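Hey team,

Sharing the Dipeptidase run so nobody has to redo it. Sequence (377 residues) first:
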Amino acid sequence: MADLHDDEDIPLGNGGASARAEGEEEAEELRPGAPEPEERARALLTEHPVADGHSGLPWALSRLTWYDLELGDTALQTDLPRLREGAVGAMFWSLRLPQAYEGNRAVSATLALIDLAETVVRAHPEGLRLAHTASHTADARAHGRIACMLGPAAATAIDDCLGTLRALHKLGVRSLAMSGTRWVGEQGLSRFGEEVVREMNRLGVLADLSGSSAATVKHVLTVSKAPVIFSRSAAHALTPHPDNVPDELLAALRDNNGLCLVPCTAAQTGPALRDVADHLDHVRRVAGPECVGISGMYDTESALPDGLHDTSRYPQLIAELLDRGWSDADVSRLTWGNVQRVLRDADFAARAAQLRRLPSTATLERLDGVREVGLVG
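Structure output:
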């Protein structure tokens, strides 16, 4: 009987060539090819981390008697372990208040949230750092810290006083929601409202137009010399939510060099991660890749889409976009670059405005008189 291992005299012929080809095909399948989308996403996020445009953490923490951001806390959707897992490099900490807060109550509640934010950052010096400018956020990232920006604050927090606006700016507030006051409404800005926008430009405080009427958005875009933001708005064309932005205004945002930060909320985008990606696709297409960003909306009591249940899930969202054909350059703009650019542009606009004008002494009474609202077209 022939030795089964003795094949020196067996000709390979076509059968041997086929066997060799099959072996090469199998070896080709085993070789590492292009990285999987999530692997590629994590590599990109290492260089271009997420700048989250709207976190409800300050208000959420103010409702708790105890929390642990260092080790993780099940009462929250945000903590340091999950922020690191999600490759978050910067966050806007919302100072928004319930609608019932007005006047002195709104001012004191905002000051309390600022104080809480400073306390939280001081308690976590190895993980968090307060930031006021694009340079601060870049420096925090370079030192392995997550930059924390304060805003948006509610417009009611300035209590119809430009001096209060300046004081909040000195405390670190960098964006103001343009709704809910006597000087901004469904028909646009009053004369005092226009002066508020000019003073915000002079200070470097961004106008946040999420929740504003279409007339207000157009009016602010006319008055403002600095970029504006929508801190929590998706595409109205896909989901007709009142806080979402119609295509006409998204196109106008391109001319302003502003930023629409798409929220990860089921009500505004849909029940699944892919729905959030649909809105990001749409905003990028209409407003341009330089005008789209991400807002997690974590710890705001908003229902979240499946697959985006906390701040650790950003790599999965970025992987979905890469799988849809987003370029590395557009992803880097979405996650980090666009927020940095808007902060820089607001700072440049402020420096230019400070050369032209002194702090405004305008008052609501002087500009709008005794009228209840006093709106102009």
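Residues 227 and 256 are 6 Å apart (CA to CA).

Ping me if you want the raw files.
A.
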